Amino acid sequence: MPAGTRDLEFEFTTRDFSRVRDMIYQRAGIALGEQKQEMVYGRLSRRLRTLGFTRFSAYLDLLESQPGNDEWVSFTNALTTNLTSFFREAHHFPMLAEFLLTRQTPVNIWCAGSSSGEETWSIVMTACEAFDSLNPPITVLASDIDTQVLKTAEQGIYPVERVQKLAPDRLRRFFLKGSGSQEGFVRIRPVLQRMVRFHAINLLSESWPDFGVFDVIFCRNVMIYFDKNTQSKILTHFTRVMKPQALLFAGHSENFLNITSDFSLVGKTVYRLNGNRSSNAFAESGRL
Ligand SMILES: C[S@@+](CC[C@H](N)C(=O)[O-])C[C@H]1O[C@@H](n2cnc3c(N)ncnc32)[C@H](O)[C@@H]1O
Q: Pick from 2, 8, 20, 16: which is nearest to 57 by CA?
C-alpha cells in the first residue's frame, strides 16, 4: 500500500493489517498473504463506514473484545474469496456421474465451501443426468462459512450471464427464466432445490453438525486458503464423515498426497478414501 502513506478514508496501519491476518486465521483458517493489505482495506472499509468507525484499530478492538458479536460474521464474510462458476473444472463431473451409479442409494454428497451455489447446482444437474430423473436418489449438503453467499446458493437465482456457457438443453431442463422484475435472471427449478440442505459450517471447527456420512465430498478451491497444518486437520476430520471408498474432489491446485496417507489419487485432483477408514463403521459397544 504502504500503510499510512496515502490519504485514506480510514486509518489503517501495518499493525492493523497484521491483526486482521491473525484474526481471520484464528477464525476461519484463512492464511492471508502479506500482499493482501490493499484487498483487506477495500473489503473491510465498507464495514467501518457502516458502523461509523474512522480507524481500523477501533473496529478490531470491538471484535477482539466481543468474540460473540455478530460483526464477526460480517468480518468473515468480507474476507472470504468466493470465485466460482457452473461446471467449473468440468472434468470432475463425468467422473462424479459414473461414481454415483456405482453407489448404494441414496447417495449422500457434501459440497463443502459451496460459495454461491454454482458448484452445488452443477452436482445436482449431474445427478439428474446420471439417473435420468429430476428426482435422483441423492441428498446434498451445501455449506460455506460465508452466510451471504450461502443465501444466494439457497435462492438459486443468478444473472443470465452466469449461465451463458451452459448447454441449451441444461438451461431448459434445469432453470426457469425470469420475467418482469426478474428479467435478466434465471432460477434453478424448485424440484431440484428439494434435495439440497444449506448450512453454515466452518471447516475449521472442532465439531461439525451431524449430517451423517458421505459418499462424495466436494471441497474444491477452499483448502488453498489454508496452511498445511489446517489442511491436514480438515482432511482427518473428513475421513470421519466419509463412507468406505468415498471420493473427495479437490481444486486444480490442491494436492494432499504429501499431507495424508488416508487417500489415494484416483483421477485429476480426485481422491478416494483408503480401506475401511470410516470410523462410523464402529460404535461404542460398552464392554466387549
Ligand atoms: C473460491 S471459493 C470456491 C467455491 C467452489 N468450491 C468452487 O470451487 O467453485 C472458496 C469458498 O470457501 C469458503 N471458505 C473459506 N474458509 C472457509 C472455512 N473455514 N469453512 C468453510 N468454508 C470456507 C469461502 O467462503 C468461499 O466461498
A: 16
pLDDT tens digits along 236-271? 999 999 999 999 999 999 999 999 999 999 999 999
Q: According to the model, what pLDDT value does residue 276 have?
A: 59
| DSSP 8-state secondary structure symbol assigned to residue 24 | H
SS3 content of the chain, % helix, strand, coil (to 5): 40, 20, 40
Question: Cell 457452473 sits at which residue?
Answer: 86
User: What pTM was estimated for this model as a whole?
Assistant: 0.94
CATH number, span 92-281: 3.40.50.150
* C-alpha cell, 276: 475401511
Checking if the pLDDT of 151 tops 60, the result is: yes
**Which residues have any ligand 1 atom within 6 Å of their CB?**
28-30, 80-84, 88, 113, 115, 119, 144-146, 149, 202-204, 220-222, 225, 251
Residue type for position 186 = V
Q: Check residue 117 and give left, alpha or beta (phi > 0: left; psi -120 to 50: alpha).
A: left
Place of cell 473489503: 43
Tell me the domain boundaries of the chain. Answer: 14-79, 92-281
**Candidates 1.20.1300.10, 1.10.155.10, 3.30.450.20, 2.60.40.420; CATH matching 14-79:** 1.10.155.10
Cα 271–chain centre separation: 18
User: Would residue 43 show up in a list of annotated catalytic residues for this protein?
Assistant: yes
Assess whether pLDDT exceeds 70 at residue 1: no
Give, in order, the Cα–Cα distances in Å from 162 to each of 18, 49, 156, 170. Answer: 36, 30, 12, 13
Kindly give the pairing relationship between strand 196-200 and strand 138-144: parallel
| Best residue for ligand 1 mutational test, from 144, 154, 229, 230 (most atoms within 8 Å of Cβ) | 144
